[in-house]
Write a structure and sequence with these properties.
alpha/beta; Rossmann fold; 5-stranded parallel β-sheet; 43% helix; binds 4'-phosphopantetheine
Length: 159
Amino acid sequence: MTLVYPGSFDPITNGHLDIIVRAACICDKLIVAVGNNESKRPAFTVEERVEMIRASIGDREDIEVTSFTGLLADFAKKVGARAVIKGLRAMSDFEYEFQMALLNKKLEPELETLFMMTSVQYSFLSSSAVKEIARNGGCIDGLVPDCIRERIARKLTCR
Ligand code: PNS
């Protein structure tokens, strides 16, 4: 079974990585799909985000990292995914994710949305928080994968 894990990943955090590794255990193939939500005014380009995810995952045949434009439901159908998987941190994520899941179901009735609870140590973590800390010169150790920490700090503190 193929699952799609979509998101902005601007940038990937250790919370995302935790979901990626755990989600890959319950499917044959996981496609991590970077969506370009311009309304969020991303700090990193889609290419940078894809590269950072690839660097964080390392060489794994069961995980593919790519980007998509347009509707998630169309993308998921195109790649033959049975379901979309999303991470849930707290009740605050629920309303938005619930709406997205129902919209995607309306668009593509055979596509399921699965939710995976974040590990408790990452329940406070978000890409926005990482960016705010990095922009203000704070320490992002332990919040993002080590191999991309310098890259994030360099890009955000030079702005
Ligand atoms: O959780 P995120 O990071 O905000 O997710 C962003 C993303 C790209 C997954 C989401 O915005 C998305 O699915 N965009 C594609 C457009 C779409 O299909 N929207 C749902 C129906 S309105």
